[in-house]
Design goal:
By secondary structure, the chain is mainly alpha-helical. It is 72% helix and 0% strand. The chain has 8 helices and no strands. Helix 3 runs parallel beside helix 7 and helix 5 packs antiparallel against helix 7. The longest helix has 38 residues. It is elongated. The model has no long low-confidence stretch (mean pLDDT 81).
Protein backbone atom coordinates (compact mmCIF):
# COMPACT_ATOMS: atom_id res chain seq x y z
CA UNK A 1 0.00 0.00 0.00
CA UNK A 2 1.15 3.47 -0.79
CA UNK A 3 1.10 5.94 2.09
CA UNK A 4 1.57 8.96 -0.15
CA UNK A 5 -1.02 11.69 0.15
CA UNK A 6 -2.10 13.60 -2.96
CA UNK A 7 -3.96 16.86 -2.76
CA UNK A 8 -5.81 18.89 -5.36
CA UNK A 9 -6.39 22.42 -4.12
CA UNK A 10 -9.47 24.18 -5.48
CA UNK A 11 -11.16 27.50 -4.88
CA UNK A 12 -14.83 28.33 -5.23
CA UNK A 13 -16.21 31.57 -6.63
CA UNK A 14 -18.78 31.92 -3.86
CA UNK A 15 -17.16 31.35 -0.45
CA UNK A 16 -20.57 30.86 1.16
CA UNK A 17 -21.17 27.82 -1.05
CA UNK A 18 -18.01 26.03 0.09
CA UNK A 19 -19.75 23.42 2.26
CA UNK A 20 -22.41 22.76 -0.38
CA UNK A 21 -19.68 22.29 -2.99
CA UNK A 22 -17.80 19.86 -0.71
CA UNK A 23 -20.97 17.83 -0.13
CA UNK A 24 -21.73 17.73 -3.86
CA UNK A 25 -18.19 16.59 -4.66
CA UNK A 26 -18.29 13.83 -2.02
CA UNK A 27 -21.62 12.57 -3.35
CA UNK A 28 -20.11 12.37 -6.83
CA UNK A 29 -16.99 10.60 -5.53
CA UNK A 30 -19.11 8.07 -3.68
CA UNK A 31 -21.31 7.51 -6.70
CA UNK A 32 -18.25 6.77 -8.85
CA UNK A 33 -16.60 4.69 -6.08
CA UNK A 34 -13.50 6.89 -6.13
CA UNK A 35 -11.31 6.57 -2.98
CA UNK A 36 -11.04 10.35 -2.53
CA UNK A 37 -12.62 12.89 -0.22
CA UNK A 38 -13.27 16.62 -0.46
CA UNK A 39 -12.59 18.61 2.71
CA UNK A 40 -12.11 22.25 3.61
CA UNK A 41 -8.65 23.70 4.12
CA UNK A 42 -8.79 23.44 7.92
CA UNK A 43 -9.36 19.70 7.85
CA UNK A 44 -6.72 19.31 5.16
CA UNK A 45 -4.19 21.22 7.29
CA UNK A 46 -4.62 18.73 10.12
CA UNK A 47 -5.42 18.78 13.81
CA UNK A 48 -3.06 21.66 14.62
CA UNK A 49 -4.92 24.03 12.32
CA UNK A 50 -8.25 22.98 13.84
CA UNK A 51 -6.85 23.47 17.33
CA UNK A 52 -5.63 26.96 16.45
CA UNK A 53 -8.99 27.77 14.87
CA UNK A 54 -10.86 26.85 18.07
CA UNK A 55 -8.33 28.72 20.23
CA UNK A 56 -9.03 31.87 18.21
CA UNK A 57 -12.76 31.28 18.57
CA UNK A 58 -12.32 31.00 22.35
CA UNK A 59 -10.35 34.26 22.40
CA UNK A 60 -13.12 35.97 20.41
CA UNK A 61 -15.75 34.67 22.85
CA UNK A 62 -13.63 36.04 25.70
CA UNK A 63 -13.59 39.46 24.03
CA UNK A 64 -17.40 39.35 23.68
CA UNK A 65 -17.72 38.53 27.39
CA UNK A 66 -15.50 41.50 28.26
CA UNK A 67 -17.66 43.75 26.03
CA UNK A 68 -20.82 42.47 27.74
CA UNK A 69 -19.31 43.18 31.17
CA UNK A 70 -18.36 46.69 30.05
CA UNK A 71 -21.87 47.26 28.75
CA UNK A 72 -23.36 46.20 32.10
CA UNK A 73 -21.01 48.54 34.00
CA UNK A 74 -21.88 51.48 31.73
CA UNK A 75 -25.60 50.74 31.98
CA UNK A 76 -25.51 50.51 35.79
CA UNK A 77 -23.54 53.76 36.01
CA UNK A 78 -26.09 55.55 33.84
CA UNK A 79 -29.02 54.15 35.84
CA UNK A 80 -27.47 55.32 39.13
CA UNK A 81 -26.83 58.75 37.60
CA UNK A 82 -30.47 59.03 36.49
CA UNK A 83 -31.78 57.87 39.89
CA UNK A 84 -29.62 60.48 41.60
CA UNK A 85 -31.14 63.15 39.36
CA UNK A 86 -34.81 62.16 39.66
CA UNK A 87 -35.65 65.33 41.61
CA UNK A 88 -33.99 67.47 38.94
CA UNK A 89 -35.78 65.57 36.16
CA UNK A 90 -39.11 65.87 38.01
CA UNK A 91 -38.63 69.63 38.41
CA UNK A 92 -37.85 69.99 34.70
CA UNK A 93 -40.96 67.95 33.82
CA UNK A 94 -43.11 70.07 36.18
CA UNK A 95 -41.77 73.24 34.53
CA UNK A 96 -42.86 71.95 31.13
CA UNK A 97 -39.89 70.00 29.76
CA UNK A 98 -41.15 67.35 27.36
CA UNK A 99 -40.22 63.67 27.46
CA UNK A 100 -38.40 64.19 24.17
CA UNK A 101 -36.26 66.94 25.72
CA UNK A 102 -35.36 64.74 28.72
CA UNK A 103 -34.54 61.85 26.37
CA UNK A 104 -32.35 64.07 24.18
CA UNK A 105 -30.49 65.44 27.22
CA UNK A 106 -29.78 61.94 28.56
CA UNK A 107 -28.73 60.74 25.11
CA UNK A 108 -26.35 63.66 24.64
CA UNK A 109 -24.73 63.01 28.03
CA UNK A 110 -24.39 59.31 27.23
CA UNK A 111 -22.89 59.97 23.81
CA UNK A 112 -20.41 62.43 25.29
CA UNK A 113 -19.31 59.91 27.94
CA UNK A 114 -19.01 56.98 25.53
CA UNK A 115 -17.41 59.13 22.83
CA UNK A 116 -14.72 60.44 25.17
CA UNK A 117 -14.15 56.95 26.59
CA UNK A 118 -13.93 55.54 23.06
CA UNK A 119 -11.35 58.11 21.98
CA UNK A 120 -9.26 57.56 25.14
CA UNK A 121 -9.49 53.79 24.62
CA UNK A 122 -8.27 54.11 21.02
CA UNK A 123 -5.36 56.34 22.06
CA UNK A 124 -4.41 53.88 24.81
CA UNK A 125 -4.69 50.99 22.33
CA UNK A 126 -2.37 52.70 19.85
CA UNK A 127 0.20 53.45 22.57
CA UNK A 128 0.12 49.89 23.97
CA UNK A 129 0.30 48.43 20.44
CA UNK A 130 3.45 50.44 19.68
CA UNK A 131 5.00 49.48 23.02
CA UNK A 132 4.33 45.76 22.46
CA UNK A 133 5.88 45.91 19.00
CA UNK A 134 8.86 47.91 20.32
CA UNK A 135 9.57 45.24 22.97
CA UNK A 136 10.35 42.68 20.19
CA UNK A 137 8.74 39.75 21.98
CA UNK A 138 9.77 36.55 20.18
CA UNK A 139 8.45 32.98 20.38
CA UNK A 140 10.34 29.71 20.28
CA UNK A 141 7.27 27.51 20.80
CA UNK A 142 5.92 26.19 17.46
CA UNK A 143 2.32 26.41 18.65
CA UNK A 144 2.63 30.10 19.60
CA UNK A 145 4.34 30.85 16.30
CA UNK A 146 1.39 29.30 14.45
CA UNK A 147 -1.15 31.00 16.72
CA UNK A 148 0.27 34.48 16.18
CA UNK A 149 1.45 33.83 12.61
CA UNK A 150 5.01 34.97 13.25
CA UNK A 151 8.09 34.32 15.39
CA UNK A 152 7.71 37.82 16.86
CA UNK A 153 4.66 39.46 18.40
CA UNK A 154 3.86 42.34 16.08
CA UNK A 155 0.73 44.40 16.66
CA UNK A 156 -0.69 47.16 14.56
CA UNK A 157 -3.64 49.54 14.64
CA UNK A 158 -5.28 50.61 11.41
CA UNK A 159 -7.75 53.35 10.65
CA UNK A 160 -10.41 50.69 10.11
CA UNK A 161 -9.74 49.31 13.62
CA UNK A 162 -10.10 52.74 15.18
CA UNK A 163 -13.28 53.47 13.24
CA UNK A 164 -14.80 50.11 14.26
CA UNK A 165 -13.95 50.70 17.94
CA UNK A 166 -15.44 54.19 17.93
CA UNK A 167 -18.59 52.92 16.20
CA UNK A 168 -18.87 50.12 18.76
CA UNK A 169 -18.52 52.56 21.68
CA UNK A 170 -21.29 54.74 20.25
CA UNK A 171 -23.58 51.74 19.67
CA UNK A 172 -22.97 50.44 23.20
CA UNK A 173 -23.64 53.93 24.56
CA UNK A 174 -26.94 54.17 22.69
CA UNK A 175 -28.01 50.74 23.92
CA UNK A 176 -27.02 51.59 27.48
CA UNK A 177 -29.02 54.85 27.21
CA UNK A 178 -32.39 53.12 26.67
CA UNK A 179 -33.09 51.74 30.16
CA UNK A 180 -31.97 54.82 32.17
CA UNK A 181 -34.13 57.08 30.01
CA UNK A 182 -37.08 54.72 30.39
CA UNK A 183 -36.58 54.87 34.16
CA UNK A 184 -36.39 58.67 34.15
CA UNK A 185 -39.52 59.09 32.04
CA UNK A 186 -41.55 56.76 34.29
CA UNK A 187 -40.95 59.02 37.27
CA UNK A 188 -43.96 61.03 38.46
CA UNK A 189 -42.91 64.73 38.36
CA UNK A 190 -44.52 65.55 41.75
CA UNK A 191 -43.05 62.52 43.52
CA UNK A 192 -39.67 63.10 41.88
CA UNK A 193 -39.64 66.72 43.10
CA UNK A 194 -40.34 65.45 46.60
CA UNK A 195 -37.39 63.08 46.35
CA UNK A 196 -39.32 59.80 46.00
CA UNK A 197 -37.66 57.02 44.09
Amino acid sequence: LSTTWHFLVCTVKNARATQATIRALNRQFKKNNWPVEAVNWRHAAGSTALYLYWMRRIFNIGILIILAAGFIVVNNTLVITVLDRLREIGTMRALGASKRYISAECMLETLLLTGIAGVLGCVLGVVVSHLVTALHITFTNAFLIQLFGSEALVTGVTGANIRSCLELSVVLGLLAWIYPVFTALQANPVQAMQGAK
